[in-house]
Amino acid sequence: MADLKTAIEIQKNSLLDWITPSLAHIVCQCARVWEEPDAIDNVLLNNMTSLPSCSLGYVVDKTGEQVSGNILQGGADRSVRGQDLSTRPFFTENDRKSVQFVSPVYISKATHKPCLTVTHEIVGFAGTLYGYLAVDIALSELPLVQGQEVEKQKWQQIKGDPAIRSTLFMQTRSVSLMDRHLDDVVDTVTNLILEQGVFHAKLHFSSSRASLWNMNNPHDYQIHVLEDITDPTMCLIYPNRSYPQKAKIKAELVPAILNEFKELRQLDETIYLRSASLNIMNDMVSLTFSCDGTHYMTSQEFLTRGPKLF
Length: 310
What we know:
- By secondary structure, this protein is α+β, with helices and mostly antiparallel strands.
- The chain has two domains: 4-141, Beta-Lactamase (2-Layer Sandwich), CATH 3.30.450.20; 156-309, no CATH class.
- It is 28% helix and 26% strand.
- The chain contains eight helices and 14 strands.
- It has helices at 4-32, 37-47, 89-92, 162-166, 182-195, 226-229, 254-267, 299-305; strands at residues 54-61, 70-72, 75-77, 100-102, 106-107, 114-123, 129-138, 156-158, 198-204, 209-214, 217-225, 273-279, 284-289, 294-297.
- The strands form three sheets. It has a seven-stranded antiparallel sheet. Strands 1, 4, 5, 6 and 7 form a five-stranded antiparallel sheet that branches.
- Helix 5 packs antiparallel against helix 7 (254-267).
- The longest helix has 29 residues, at 4-32.
- The two termini are 31 Å apart.
- The relative contact order is 0.11.
């Protein structure tokens, strides 16, 4: 399992392995006809079929001025020659330390969709840097490495609305309807997770409702008001299902986590828990407090920290 930065580098290196042989072939031809823009266009036109996932190819000199036209699959727009591309991400963030470079992902001005640009140096016979071949690739066409799982980040806190934080000590917790039935709510949700296929549950304590995601229909979450959650017959709408083997939170920890939610809700009258969620499949606990700050952590971190979050 890789961290986010490493996972991105794996994808970029895979892309370079896939595209570099084709780019190297094209830049050699471009170097031979560097002084002839029309000839460069023809090189790109003749070779775009070897880059089926690339939506656009073009050549810029070492200052970022576009030398070629914009070469599409089967056509060329030569009206763009001479435009300054030196402020584009593929040029500004290229550290010039490698022959190939993969830009950060950005939104294409042409398609308005996420894409990235791969560049390859164009070098003359004497080792002189002429410029760069650039090809744009839409993310939807990118041959990504499958199975990349990003390592879960450790506990993090995200601050919320400054206006809410500034008035924090002017407010106190109002007892909600859910507060009066916390034991029943915790018992019902515990049962739904352990025995009836709910893998993600979010409890909104202040507004007395719950959002539930079920394994049988994971793309369609259900919102239940307090009357639903405190009525045991609600369990009839969720079919019995054994606790998933792939869950990253052990079944025996679920009651402890939900009871800790209850304790945090009642711990303080000023800084109190407004909502909390638990996802057993990715081992994520999230907590949003009255200051509008939100905490994200693993179940073990949560059970270890507990009231220390305040």
